[in-house]
Amino acid sequence: MIRIGTLSSRYLGYCRRLYSHTPFDEYLDFTPGGMALEEEQPVTVTHDPFDFSNLPIFKDKNDVFSSSSATPNRPLLGDTNLSMSPESVMQEPITMTTEDFMRKFNMPRSDQSFDKKKLERFSLFLRTDTQARQHNTSLQDIARITSPLMVVSEFNNPRLNLAIEKYIYDQMPDPLANARSRRLLLYKNTPCVVIGKNQNPFREINFREATIRGIPILRRYSGGGTVVHDLGNFNFSYMSSRQSFSRVEFTSALNNEINQFVGLDVGYDAPKFLLTTNDRGDIVNSSSLKKVSGSAYQISRGKSLHHGTMLLNSDLERLSALLKLTEERKASIQDKSTDSIPSPVENLGMSDVLFQFTAVEAFKKLHPTDGIEDMVYDNLVVQGDSHILKLNEVNDLPKEVLEIQHELSTWEWTIGKTPKFQLIVNDEEFQYQMTVEKGLITEVDSAEPNFKALIGLPFSSEKISHVLPDPLKSHVTWHVDSNTNYAQLGIS
């Protein structure tokens, strides 16, 4: 067991949480219950109720985040009342830049040299074999502590990491009743494509490219757009309360930590350029404005989750190929699901160790220690009353995590949760239209009598190929999913 003393930090000055009540509240809570992923009715609306990337922060006339006060030429006002009046929720939405956020919370950028010994201690923690622990501390042992908790997953299995994320989120004590109940999860995945909860994979992903490369396709339980993961990008999940939800809280603190290392020789690859946060909460190059980290959100049961994908040294060519669809394909899929918003992207060029260090430092500065008695666990670096748990053994995982991992791999979740859509094909050889709900073909409109046999079948070339004759079979299976072998994509 390794124990490290309290890391020095710049306390946030007079930080208050912003409470709000908005017309979006009816969409925010999932039904409480067990670990199984929630059932949902088919989507009939044109927006994604779980995509909060564009959710505005509403203001009243005294709100210091007012668009009239938070401008480059007018500094933010002093500390004022941030409570919300019922009449204020329909007023003009506003956004807050990284610079405004740091100015408000007394977080000026620092040009002073960093604490090299602190980085070395953190690096040693990452390298230490957890098998040397004195006690068998597992995720279940510590998941419900009320003080801040940081978890570093050394697993690279995409579905396992998403399952760990969901378990930590579900087990985190109510942040409203426990003011210090906050979480940070860090992990990276082997190559995969991850779609938002309410997205249509057939409109987002090049299935042929994914099949040839054997790249798994996953559906997460939060909103937002489609992202490609690989070992060159690091993922963070910041968990807080619903009342204090902010698109820029963690990313602004993270940018502040990362920017201090630009141009420094610290023994690890340093970031190549300065970062800022755009109005969607994405981290971007402050000069080129190319995206370095996209964001997705979940708000439910009094909690909020913000996860991002930090491009450190990713294969951007592969990322582009997996998400590149022909115009013909895009036009053939008609639905009301959430579309991804394409953006130019760029690698930060930063090392894994240095990124994790800056993420931990950002989390600790948002939630500084203040004398609460330490809770000492094996396999933890205890820093004040904040704890870091490193996961790299399956035995440390509760059975609920493995159950979630299995459910995330099923056809019913990955494909069956796709919002209702239509496949429309009208070429010289064949003309037909299929309606698909919950992954099943429910209606077919075509002059070809053989199409009637498709009703009730899964929208899968593997299933369709058994009931159609050639050449119709070859034509339909290609237009459905490019003859995808779903087992190769990790979908059972």
UniProtKB/TrEMBL annotation:
SUPFAM superfamilies according to UniProt: Class II aaRS and biotin synthetases
Domain BPL/LPL catalytic, chain residue ranges per copy: 178-365
Protein origin, superkingdom: Eukaryota
Coiled coil feature spans: none
Pathway: Protein modification; protein lipoylation via exogenous pathway; protein N(6)-(lipoyl)lysine from lipoate: step 2/2
Family matches, as InterPro entries: aa-tRNA-synth_II/BPL/LPL (IPR045864), BPL_LPL_catalytic (IPR004143), LipoylTrfase_LipoateP_Ligase (IPR004562)
Family of the protein in this entry: Belongs to the LplA family.
PANTHER family assigned to the protein according to its UniProt record, in alphabetical order: LIPOATE-PROTEIN LIGASE (PTHR12561), LIPOYLTRANSFERASE 1, MITOCHONDRIAL (PTHR12561:SF3)
Role noted for this protein: Catalyzes both the ATP-dependent activation of exogenously supplied lipoate to lipoyl-AMP and the transfer of the activated lipoyl onto the lipoyl domains of lipoate-dependent enzymes.
Name used for this protein in its record: Putative lipoate-protein ligase A
